[in-house]
Sequence to fold (294 residues):
Amino acid sequence: MKVLNFGSLNYDYVYNVDHMVRPGETLCSGGMNTFGGGKGLNQSIALAKAGVPVYHAGVIGEDGGMFLDICKESNVDTTYIRTLEGRSGHTIIQVDKNAQNCILLYGGTNRRVTKEMVDSVLSDFGEGDILLLQNEINEMPYIIDKAYEKKMTIALNPSPYDSALDDCDFHKVSIFLMNEIEGEMMTGHKNPDEILDYMMQEFPDSKVVLTLGGDGVRYRDKDQAFAQGIFKVQAVDTTAAGDTFTGYFIGGLLADMPVPAILERCAKASAIAVSRAGATTSIPTVEEVETIQL
Fold:
């Protein structure tokens, strides 16, 4: 069984601010750092640090050498990363004094995936292999359709949730990993129970993971339901918390761990991540998760 993450690679320009910039306001930043990120790259790093061999597929620009270095340092296979002329994707991230963030995303080369590239990458994968997707690249409906034809197990983090997902056949998705905002946009419901009820009605054969910030996480499939609280830490930067959770959740499934144990380990890994600055740099290794006391 192989794991393929077909996703984004972004430069994250992170600005420390007292509060989020308001319309018409000019605000001085208390600091600025540049990190390698993107939901795709973050989740590949999380998978690798959770002990899962992972292939990353995506498109970088001529400025994207740092992404290849980050992947190689973290044991993420870069065979399926293509380089094109132009600029890589990037984000401008504001992090306030309460460690909350807001993100402006520029797609760059992440939006230049072609059907030919999808066919070429997926030709090396087949039945039983896992495909992880987010919504920061183009050709999402085509990728889902082709992976489903090959009987791959598709895991989707529908973030950011926008109209690009309207043409995706969610019935081909086996694992949904989303937060309460994405859950509301998918279902039209705000209440976690109602979100999960809707998902089970519409996608009864799927696993659904719903993260709820400070209220922890809820899990549901057709046979069982579980909840897990958070580990309280001093938050520094929440940017990669959800991506860390995603990587560790899939890692737990592959290790055949019971779902409650998976959720507990995911919550601990995410707590460690938010206590550190940056995206990929904040994600803990499985050894840290097992040894650090929270």
User: Anything to note?
Assistant: The radius of gyration is 18 Å. The CA atoms of residues 4 and 55 lie 5 Å apart.
